[in-house]
Amino acid sequence: MVQGIAAVVREPGGDWVMEEMEVEAPRADEVLVRNVASGICHTDVAVRNQDVKLPLSMVLGHEGSGIVEAVGSAVTQVKVGDHVVLSGDSCGHCRPCHEGLPSYCDDFVQRNLSGERMDGTSPLSQNGVALPGRFNGQSSFATYSLVPVRTAIKIEKELPLELMGPLGCGLTTGVGTVINALKPPAGSSIAVFGVGTVGLSAIMGARLCGCACIIAVDVKPARLDMALELGATHCIDASNTNVVKEIHTITKRGADFSVECSGVPIAVRNAVDCLARPGWSAQVGATPGGIEIPFSMDHMGFGRGIKGVVLGDAATQTFVPYLAGLYKDGRLPYDKFVKYYDFDDINQAVHDSAVTGEVIKPILKMP
Fold this sequence. Notes:
Elements: E1 2-9, E2 17-23, E3 30-39, H1 42-49, E4 58-59, E5 64-71, E6 83-86, H2 95-98, H3 108-113, E7 124-126, E8 129-131, E9 144-148, E10 152-155, H4 161-164, H5 170-182, E11 189-193, H6 197-209, E12 213-218, H7 221-229, E13 234-237, H8 243-251, E14 255-260, H9 265-273, E15 275-283, H10 297-300, E16 304-308, H11 316-328, E17 338-342, H12 346-355, E18 361-365
Parallel strand pairs: 11-12, 11-14, 12-13, 14-15, 15-16, 17-18
Antiparallel strand pairs: 1-2, 1-4, 2-7, 3-5, 3-9, 3-18, 5-6, 6-10, 7-8
C-alpha cells in the first residue's frame, strides 16, 4: 500500500478538496501508476455538477499520464518505469471488445462509471473506509492511480509525458469520431459544433482525412480563431447567425458530415438539419439527462442519419500511440490550446475552463 493525495468532490457543485488516501498494492491484472499530470475534461465537471448523475463522493479525472511504479503478477504489457497514458477500462472478452470497440464493452458502466472494480471494491481508501477510485478505469485526479492493465497504454519515453493525458479521452474522442466513426472521404464537407478540446480535435481529424470544407461553429470568438489556426476553412458565430442557413450557403448543398460536441440541444438539432443528402451526424456532446430532441422525419428520410459515438469508436491501445505519433510529427498540435496548472489549483483550472471558457484544455501537473 502507498500513500497519496486525491482531489475529492463530495457534494454537487462543490469544490475539489485535497485529501490523503491509501492505494492498495496491485492485484494480478493491475498496474500502479504515479501520475505526472491529468487533463480536466467536461465530463469531470458534469459529474461534479450532477448533470451526469454518478455517485459522490468520488475521485474523478480520466486523462491521466504517468510512470508505472508496480505491476501485478499477470501483467506483461507494461513494466516498471514505462510511460503510460490512461484511458477507459474494458473487459477484453465481449463482442464489442473483440471488434475493436472497447468503449461499448458489455461491462462499460460498472468498469467506468461506478467508481468500483467489478467485484464492488475500490483500490482507494481513507482510514480503512473505501473511497470510490475507479472512474473511467483510473480516477486520475490523484498522485497515484491503480488501474486495470487495459487502461494503461504505453507510449514512447521521449514524448512530453505531462502533455499526453488528453490523448486518452478528448483527443481520441474528437479525432476518432471523424476518422473511425464518420470516415469522410477526401474532398467532402464537415461542420463541427462546439470547438472545445473535442471539437478542435475533430477539426484536426477532418484535416487529416482531407476534407475540403471544414466549418467550425461556436459562440466564443477566441475558440473560432483557434479552429482556423488548426485547419477550419470557415467559422460561424452561432450567437448571431442562422447556422443551418449559413452552412447551406457555404457548402451549396449542406454538409456531408457533422460532429456535435457541445451537448446543447439546439446544436444537436442544427447538426442534423445542416446535412446534405446523404449525410451523417455524430453526436458526441453530453446532453443534460432526460433531454428529448425532435427531428423532422421528412428531413431524415432522405439518406440522413445520426449516430452516438463514445471515445471516437477507437481501439485505444493502438489509437492513443497513433495520436502520440501524429503529435510528434507536428500533425496534431493540440499543445496550442493547453494551459498547465499545479494540482492544488484544480478549482481555478475548472473555473477558467468550465465557467469563463478562457482556457480550452487545462492540465494539472502533479507535485
